Amino acid sequence: MTIAAAPSLGAENPWLNAQRQFDNAADILNLSPGLRAVLREVRRELIVRFPVKLDGGGLRVFEGYRVQHNVTRGPAKGGIRFHPDTNLDEVKALAMWMTWKCALANIPFGGAKGGVVCDPATLSHRELERLTRRFASEISVLIGPESDIPAPDVNTSGEIMAWIMDTISMEAGYSVPAVVTGKPLDIGGSEGRPSATGRGVCIVALEACNRLGMEPHRTSVAVQGFGNVGSVAALLMHDAGFKICAVSDVHGGIYRDDGIEIHDLLEFRARTGGLAAFPRTEPVSNSALLELPVDLLVPAALENQITVRNAGRLQARVVVEAANGPTTPDADVILERRGITVVPDILANAGGVTVSYFEWVQDLQSLFWEEGEINHKLERILKKAFVQMCDHADAQRVSLRLGAYLVAVKRVADATAVRGIYP
Ligand code: GLU
Questions:
Q1: Which one, out of 49, 86, 349, 397, has a CA that is 20 to 30 A from the CA of 257?
Q2: Residues 286-304: pLDDT tens digits?
């Protein structure tokens, strides 16, 4: 009798998954029990509940979180997401992933994340501003240019960062641009930041193809998610020669086996507000998109998209994780067994936080760089991290994810050991 693979307990709890990924690296690194205990938990977690005045005159109480996983190598860093399904465990996982992401890119930050349980689509612009400003005030006990620096994430934007920057500045009595990154250019944002995560995905996809002997011109791609990350990744990968055969947003996707002209699609979306009915494409659901016959898959939406339920049916040779946590550890095992290469999130989407680091440095110096210089520096950092990840994966004969974790966890562990334990 064959027994179907059952998901292990809590298989889709991102926090348990993040801890499992850490444990895999800690085992190989032979981390001491003390260090392991420090690094597998978050340093601080703040839950806030706060009222927001609604346009109709009523009040509604929202719940939000700011979690700092680690601050050993520098200030905590990580985005804020507004999503109806966010919760403390998700934010804890995202904070831990930020620690490893910053360590792998070797930028001097720890890891943090924030979230507010809300559906921005149901809030007016004014309600969204009041919610953002009150949340910023509630977490102002933690955030600051030297302590913890938020940025955009799912459903948050440059405008929302501007409101956070303004709220913190009004409370301080002077402008504090370096308290958030991903701001508009007018108030100390950086050239290249809005496109940085997608640009990083493209850089890393090209490196992965190079390693596997795949030519971009002969590589078909499906991109799940067409937000800030997915749309820029699709555009830059299209311009780099990849054939983008499918893309999707929250409402569903479109597919065309001989490739979609992404410039035209962006223009179409700006005009119609969606992807559906783009000429000469067929509709495809978000789950079916993952199983399309393409060479390279870019999940650029949310966690837990590739699980034990569909990992056996993926047809891609390579998965480039533009989202955070799109593949569960159980699915990772299946993909590895099937010879599918996964370029892990902590490298594939590190372009965003890397240019956030440049933005923070520019704000602190009040000296601003040109976009060419920023893109060049970004490429250098990601390529170096790619090589280090591959070297560790090859030396230990493990997956790229584990290779990336070995580099990142060791950097944080070494920094902890060298600082010593206070007092
Ligand atoms: N939210 C992005 C991420 O998950 C960017 C974080 C940042 O720039 O601090 O990496």
A1: 349
A2: 999 999 999 999 999 999 9
Instruction: Give residue 8's pLDDT.
Output: 52
Distance between Cα 4 and ligand 1 center (Å): 37
| Cα 147 from Cα 178, distance rounded (Å) | 11
Buried b (16+ CB within 10 A) or exposed e, 74-83: bbbbbbbbbb
159-184 pLDDT tens trace: 999 999 999 999 999 999 999 999 99
Residue 45 burial by Cβ neighbours in a 10 Å radius (0-12, 13-18, 19+): middle
Q: Which residues are marked as active site? A: 113
Residues 254, 126 share a domain: no
pLDDT of amino acid 2 = 36
> Would 170 be classed as within a structural domain?
yes
Same-domain pairing of 49 and 116: yes
Expressed as residue numbers, the domain containing 157 is 2-8+42-186
Q: What is the CATH number for 84? A: 3.40.50.10860
Q: Residue 151: CB within 6 Å of ligand 1? A: yes
Decide: 181 in ligand 1 pocket, CB within 6 A: yes
N residues, the chain: 423
